[in-house]
Design a protein that fits this description.
single chain; alpha/beta; Pantoate--beta-alanine Ligase, Chain: A,domain 2; Ribonucleotide Reductase Protein R1, domain 1; two-stranded parallel sheet; 8 helices; 40% helix; extended; Type II secretion system protein K; GspK_central_sf; transport
């Protein structure tokens, strides 16, 4: 049997060892480069998103400027859909960023926080009746129960209204929690209210909002579902006819009675005057920014004070 010299065997082992070291070094280098490239892409994405968000904040300032122009040109007495602020706005492309913005009237919806100060037993309260009708339209089986539970969620005390719910009810749930006992910061809180279901919430969500003050519904901007909640007996067809007549007015409504007189007398609840108006103090700027791979959607709630000053009171981000 032929044997290789010891020197040759040592050289072979050294060669294999060298190849193994080179292979390990190559694997390590590839891994380092891959991680570095991943880190670079991650940083680029973060920077692009931050830049897109900065553009969204710039668009928010544009929205406030648009509302200020509206106030200077048209005054504060009427806000309607024929005015410039209510039209879709495509902002100029800037540094590769595409920006779109739409300003909505936040008072086109029913304000859940109008229920905050309703006293127990005041079942004829105009806001309570509006909310109950909206729940009926959403398909709720027991609208008064959900309405009472919502008022219990909002009011500062721990006394349950008929069919309502306070901490004693919520802490017995499989996943317990407590009532807020304060005005809602977001309509999404309604999903936590006892008796509310995902199906009802999905139906009612387009018609409700949570604002930090008691507000009237702007008849110039309210859609059919909101009008049907405002006025008992109003059906979809009649509501759409009223909206068509309203939108045909170039100057919008200047007085709520201009719309109320189109309704049958039985559709006018008591104290309706305090629940409706033709102007607004709250607006939503819905801003969308696309910058490379980054997509940002910013929804800013803007308040107009009695002196005409504008300020952003909340911001939220969500998917496009």
């Amino acid at each position: 049997m032929r044997r290789f010299p010891a020197k040759n065997r040592q050289q072979g082992i050294a060669l294999v060892t060298a190849l193994l070291v080179v292979a390990l070094a190559t694997i390590a280098a590839v891994e380092m480069v891959s991680r570095q490239q991943l880190d670079i892409r991650r940083v680029q994405n973060v920077l692009a998103r931050e830049q897109a968000y900065s553009y969204a904040i710039g668009a928010e300032l544009w929205a406030m400027h648009t509302l200020k122009e509206k106030l200077e040109q048209d005054g504060p007495d009427s806000d309607h859909l024929q005015q410039a602020w209510a039209q879709p706005i495509v902002l100029p492309e800037f540094d590769g960023a595409q920006l779109q913005m739409q300003i909505y009237d936040a008072q086109a919806r029913f304000n859940l926080n109008n229920l905050h100060d309703v006293q127990p037993g005041d079942t004829n309260n105009v806001y309570v009746q509006q909310f109950i009708r909206l729940l009926e339209l959403a398909g709720a089986e027991d609208p008064p129960q959900i309405a009472n539970a919502t008022m219990d969620w909002l009011d500062p005390d721990m006394e349950e209204r008929p069919g309502g719910a306070e901490d004693g009810t919520y802490t017995q749930l499989e996943q317990p929690y407590r009532t807020a006992n304060q005005p809602m910061a977001s309509v999404s809180e309604l999903r936590l209210v006892y008796g509310m279901t995902p199906e009802i919430y999905q139906q009612i969500e387009p018609y409700i909002i949570a604002l930090p003050a008691v507000t009237a519904v702007n008849l110039n901007t309210a859609q059919a579902g909101v009008l049907m909640g405002l006025f008992p007996g109003l059906n979809q067809q009649l509501a759409e006819q009223i909206i068509e007549q309203r939108n045909a007015r170039e100057d919008g409504l200047t007085d709520p009675n201009e719309l109320l007189q189109l309704l049958p007398p039985q559709s006018l609840p008591d104290n309706i005057d305090e629940a409706v108006g033709v102007s607004s103090d709250f607006y939503i700027a819905d801003i969308r920014v696309e910058l490379g791979p980054s997509r940002v959607r910013l929804r800013s709630l803007i308040q107009r004070s009695a002196t005409g000053e504008l300020r952003v009171i909340s911001r939220s981000q969500g998917p496009l």
